[in-house]
Design a protein that fits this description.
Chain lengths: 245, 245
Amino acid sequence: MESNKPSLFTSLSPALLHLYDVSSSIVVIIDVLRATSTIATALHNGARSIIPVDSVSECIRIGKQIDSITAGERDGKVAEGLEHGNSPFEYPSEFIGGKTLVLTTTNGTKLLQMALDNNAKTIIAGAFVNLTAVCKFLIAQKQNVILGCAAWKDRVNIEDTLFAGAVIHKIKKHFSINCDSSKMAETMYDDAKADLFEFIKEKNISHYQRLSSFGLEKDIRYCLTEDLANVLVVYEEGKLISKTF
Amino acid sequence: MESNKPSLFTSLSPALLHLYDVSSSIVVIIDVLRATSTIATALHNGARSIIPVDSVSECIRIGKQIDSITAGERDGKVAEGLEHGNSPFEYPSEFIGGKTLVLTTTNGTKLLQMALDNNAKTIIAGAFVNLTAVCKFLIAQKQNVILGCAAWKDRVNIEDTLFAGAVIHKIKKHFSINCDSSKMAETMYDDAKADLFEFIKEKNISHYQRLSSFGLEKDIRYCLTEDLANVLVVYEEGKLISKTF
């Protein structure tokens, strides 16, 4: 029966998250280009955990306190004082295995903090590279879900919306979805799914322009490919970890 | 040259309007079901002006001060103390010609007030019923544009997004559009344009559910039809008026 199913909503921007009942929901943090893709990749490749922080200075401070690798970019370059960037290709298993990564991201970390401040039941991180793990988890939990797009400085972006649509496409029969944003996300994904890369290239979306101008088409292609790093990423006690369930 | 064109952005919710440079732009207030459709219809049918207000009590107060018709609904019924509802069919020319309408709407009026507070250069009201008038005006002005969706209590809705997409579909070559929300809106419209009514019915969007449960399918069909009340609606000195340019 429809009414017995848990609800699913999509928040297209952190500036809209307050409209949804975060405290009764699992919140999926979505930052496809590239934070949550890189996080899933590093954990899939054996990183012990990832500590997300919101500023370069915080990243440097924590990096000095614990044995870790610091990473983050500003304007497409490794930020001054940090060691590595935001590309998933920087974190193969021979490099990241067994290590802790302290990663500064702007949009994703802001959304994560908002989910924490609003007492989200559970927080996980999602991207195309771990799509199946996210969907399996959400179906199994039988709880309300909010798909939270990190967006770009609060402006709605297409790549995070497409990922929300991909999740909805796969799990919608298990949820009651009375949410126009979710229906928009699924419509977008239906249009794009035959070739996600071509879709965002043809639309010339904002983030494609930014990243391709830095020569990062390879990153974009990776970040749009399903299940290349298919681990469930859960936020627990200040850290993102890979978890089986 | 691309860079010489004025910019066009779409704000999918009033909660996102602050992200855009309102003070340098024409803001189009979009509340397809049914406020801006009814406003255009009343003006097309000869109403002298429409005074938009945000509460029933304000509507009653102004109705007592000036010779006017008061209108507004709450939960699908004419609000207590007011004379008429939000349906465009309530305002034929033999009734509304030469009269002033004081109309209370929630979402549309909130967005209008935000545009005023942020010193919008010009404010106009748009809906499918005056699509061509809106597009002609925007092309002629050669100024930056923000398509402002009134949404539903700040939640993004599909019908206002579709109208933004319809405008973009018609005028995009005259503007520089670096805005994922606009690209989403256009994609949605491209999907829906063959039969807007069937699209929102099949998606079972939130507002379709609300209005069709009140037997208002006829209103929805009207509000999704282009150019049935093709007047330019401009906000000036507290009133919405029809204007030639």
